[in-house]
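Hey, I'm writing a tutorial for new members on how sequence and structure tokens pair up, and I'd like a real worked example in the thread rather than a made-up one. If someone can provide the structure for the chain below, I'll link this post from the tutorial.
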Amino acid sequence: MNKNDFLILNDEVENALNLGKPIVALESTIITHGMPYPQNLEMAKSVEQVVRDNGAIPATIALIDGNMRAGLDGADLLYLAKEGHKAAKASRRDMAAILTTKKMAGTTVATTMQICAIAGIRIFATGGIGGVHKGASETFDISADLNELANTPVAVVCAGAKSILDIAKTLEVLETNGVPVIGYQSDVFPAFYLRNSGYRVDQRFDEPSEIANMLDIQWQLKMGGVLIANPIPKQDEMNKDEIETLIKNAIIAADKQGVSRKELTPFLLKSIFEMSEGKSLKANIALVKNNAKVAAKIAVAFASKS
């Protein structure tokens, strides 16, 4: 465990780190900006329980009262969930400013990875990573998640990249930056609501122990992050034509309203939720739980190597 003046661990997470127990980090923009209240609170509690049920300790991460927090109690989760979009959305560039102003913020994939590295947490479960946005050749809108994966030694279990992104270009940037893209029991890279994006992963592993071995070697070699792609369960997958139409309409709405940069992803997800009459939220919750389950199994296998 690393020491940092701005890092606060709850007792359970601190004890787990000291004893080398398996831990799974969880990000908090999915709570503040990913879905409405009270579904966001129910999701956060249920995902933490999935981690526990599979043998690991959950460490939900957020910025609260001028501190990086790893491990939140029920009151903290309730506070985050009720604040919703009133809370800031903190990526790497925002970290120092938000700690200075002591605002509450949900942490993105990039910022959660950064805090994981400071705390000494190696495994992190999220919904989907950010990436290269459609039209990035004009806007240069590329998520900081990709650069963080290149440099920060944390394994991110996700359901691929969000369907609103240009997945081909996202995978190209990951390849350029030397980030291994691993398929868990899958040869193809998923697209959040869909199991198959049409693109292949770099390597496939079918057992958590195999991934744990790979991560151990990756970090013995002093290399950066690893992306573990875990497709949404088949029974929870959305219809391809339906979701593509929803995304197209959400992007048109964003363009008309001038929504861009870090406000774009929350806007698109909210629009898709509303247009799908909640079906996208059901799929989102299912894939996050599935990722938490797989991450916990990998964390248990990785901890057994210590």
